[in-house]
Write a structure and sequence with these properties.
The structure is a homodimer of 466-residue chains. With 466 residues, chain A is an alpha+beta fold. Chain A has helices at residues 6-10, 25-28, 47-60, 114-122, 138-144, 151-154, 191-195, 232-242, 255-262, 297-306, 318-333, 350-364, 396-412, 428-434, 437-450, and strands at residues 16-17, 40-42, 63-67, 85-89, 98-100, 105-109, 126-127, 161-167, 175-177, 204-211, 213-214, 218-226, 247-254, 279-287, 312-315, 336-339, 342-344, 369-370, 373-374, 380-382, 385-388. In chain A, 31% of the residues lie in helices and 20% in strands. The two termini of chain A are 24 Å apart.
């Protein structure tokens, strides 16, 4: 269909924005990566409007890309310039958050932001315990199965999606999943599970019911300094065993990442004064109310000192600690070109993987610096490689070599090359080349049902390249 | 294929049992419901042997029914007498339990019993926190997405399955899923999720990696008496708010169920002495170590008394309390014919549903007694209807009318007619008649990939009737 004629497709149906007439920049400019291009942005406000949009696209063979808050990091949330694409933003899918206090659940539209939901939930002492630097929409969090800093204690987004409602691009624009608020349901295949991690390629997520948990009554946040990175698992073990289940975060920031973060303008102060340890760990313990206190965390720290695991430890103000932690990624990007790698392995083998990755990058690109950081407590790490401005960006061959080397190491360790950012153009090749045939056939079979004309999601999403 | 000739199919391949020659009763006699009939029982000991069995069945068009510990309650675990069926027991899929303490995970073969896993995990202060009256195999727990008494705090089985390995009945006897021990993985569709709730109809589960959590350091177990059933949600609210996240069980036992349980031979004593309250609640709080104590639960109980919510409350010995609770279901079955209903609704509407169900059954069958009990804290209830021995069993029409009435009420309340027992012949009709077309088409698409000849699982499983 002629892109110029696209507005006529939706006339009278729903709100839409036309590039050149309206400002559509925020739907084209992702949090990271190259700018995309929306032929048109449609903003339906309810499920029937979404079905209407999908129906018109299917009838006219127009590509449709669902978009949440456009905070995704794998290139799936913006439309490619080379394919005329309608972007369906969830911005107006935002009816009020309905909290069922008796059931500890919230029913939300897909466009609801994480911060909005948590503000509403906090009034009842509840939270969706997914902690992120960004403020995504709930639909996007489901489509990526996002993780964040508290997976260690609370698990990934999947755990909290009790139900999701999804519009398919089949002949009937069928709706699958539900907005049922059941804590358990054993009726076979859970269609909601198909929405989790679907990346916009298996349907348009319109709403969800999420589980809420109690806000902690108190917490203790420490920055810890470790000289020998190989002993980080041992440190985790000591702290976890002494107070089982109480650690809500165990974040690692390497020396290379921390020293570059604390020098940035406006950064919170270095918690260790003038020193930057080889490895810094942000450890957070959280406690419920009524006597389940955090008394004695300092004894746990002392035990770790006694075991020779710590070089320093500072009880810190939580908001300063988290502000610093959440700045790491973007601070590095101000200093040059960053190749990001979002990986996970079994927690017990994370430090081995880290060392291998450092060695591999040093061999391939001695001019680059591994500035790794991430969620070590759940086996996750962002093995981000910085090419400083004075070195200049790496060429395509070197980028590919580094990514290939790290992904190979990760897969050899039984790990994932997409721990929490989802699937999209950025990791599509790897998915296509390493996913077993039967699993690709399963996705093809699902696509044939929910998107027989292959119109949903980014055309470079791996599900659209099967 | 001639059933007499079946043994020749497996000769030299793997251990098998022939009815009439070997005792196969335990593979034919389910925990509940009618006896089935195995044409042959095969007991492969590893994935390659499983693939060998599946390959022979596919090549010869022989039906294959995967079976765990045969503790299932929906008729899916035994083979139907009318269809010659090979039963694949996981009894020998039982290599040692491998616990990765550093990662808090266990890699287990499908035939591993829950009790075996938990015995091994307890040595490290860890557990798979699924509490059941039965002792199922891990593969069966995954195939039913089982629940149990501690879903309230810990969630259903799905939450604990980090990975599952499954053999498909396609031309290549492909293996999907994995034995990866990742706490988070965002690579799109998680094939492991397809195994959860698959009821033996989407593949043979051969192994899994499960998440383990810390064993509690201490707990407090109370039997509470409630006069007015409608105030049970209020009671839950008071207790939960005073100590958020600490309740690990909140089990309801109705007067009708409790008075019939305590009179059974060998039953633990009535915790309330000579009284049986209108509704009894078994409430359990659990606490982690190092200062996160359970001091003050009695204050919470006192607050509930002050609010007029309790008629009685007794701190009890946990093993006696649970022994009584886990006897309820089978005790009722010694007293007549029980029509079991395994339902869930949003927690906040459970008591409304309960009253409607009691009224509906009273109207349809005044001679019957609703003896309900179950996991009220997670919105689940077993609305079990007893036809006492002196009344005699209900006819088929009445059975169908009662089941229909209860299922209709449950669905109208946004609930599930299979909260924790899975899908099988017993609830197949309801699944087929109420599941949206697109979700049935999604299952058909998956079946076409993993079981194109429709040989896997019970022939009356709904996935085999699409």
């Amino acid at each position: 269909m002629d892109p110029e004629a696209l507005p006529t497709l939706f006339d009278g149906l729903t709100a839409f924005l036309v590039p050149g007439i309206d400002d559509v920049a925020r739907f084209e400019d992702p949090a990271r990566g190259a700018r995309g291009r929306a032929a048109l942005v449609v903003a339906p406000a309810n499920v029937e409007e979404v079905r209407n949009v999908v129906r018109r696209c299917v009838a006219n063979g127009v590509r449709l890309l669902p978009q949440g808050a456009n905070t995704g990091l794998v290139g799936a949330s913006v439309a490619p310039p080379e394919t005329p694409t309608v972007v369906l933003t969830s911005e107006r899918l935002r009816s009020s958050v309905a909290i069922d206090v008796g059931s500890s659940t919230a029913t939300v539209s897909a466009g609801t932001r994480l911060s909005e939901l948590n503000e509403a939930a906090a009034a009842y002492g509840l939270q969706l315990p997914v902690d992120l630097g960004a403020d995504p929409a709930i639909g996007g969090m489901i489509a990526t199965n996002t993780g964040g800093s508290r997976v260690l204690r609370y698990g990934p987004m999947r755990r909290y999606v009790l139900a999701a409602e999804v519009v398919a691009a089949d002949a009937d624009t069928s709706v699958f999943g539900s907005l049922g608020a059941l804590r358990k349901d054993s009726r076979g295949l859970d269609a909601t599970q198909l929405a989790v991690g679907s990346g916009g390629a298996l349907g348009v997520i319109t709403g969800a019911v999420v589980d809420l948990v109690a806000l902690p009554h108190s917490s203790a946040t420490w920055w810890l300094a470790v000289d020998d990175a190989r002993r980080v698992p041992e440190l985790f073990g000591v702290l976890d065993r002494r107070r089982p289940g109480a650690l809500t975060a165990f974040e690692l920031v390497s020396r290379a990442a921390l020293e570059r973060t604390v020098i940035a303008a406006g950064a919170p102060p270095n918690p260790f004064g003038h020193e930057v340890p080889n490895v810094a760990v942000l450890a957070e313990w959280s406690f419920a109310g009524n006597g389940e206190g955090g008394n004695g965390v300092e004894d746990d720290i002392a035990a770790a000192f006694d075991a020779g695991l710590l070089a320093d430890g500072r009880l810190v103000e939580p908001s300063l600690a988290w502000a610093l932690r959440h700045r790491v990624s973007e601070s590095l990007r101000t200093l040059g070109t960053v190749l990001g790698h979002d990986v996970s392995v079994p927690r017990s083998s994370l430090m081995d993987l880290r060392q291998r990755a450092i060695d591999a990058v040093a061999a391939l690109a001695p001019e680059a610096v591994m500035c790794d950081f991430g969620h070590a407590g759940d086996g996750g790490l962002h093995l981000n490689v910085l090419f400083p401005t004075d070195v200049g960006p790496p060429g395509d061959a070197l980028r590919a070599a580094i990514r290939g080397a790290i992904d190979d190491l990760v897969l050899a360790a039984g790990g994932s090359y997409s721990a929490e950012h989802g699937l999209g153009p950025l990791n599509a090749e790897r998915w296509l080349s390493t996913t077993p045939l039967i699993e690709r056939r399963l996705v093809t079979a699902l696509k044939d049902v929910v998107d027989p004309h292959r119109l949903l999601g980014h055309p470079a999403h791996p599900y659209n390249r099967l």
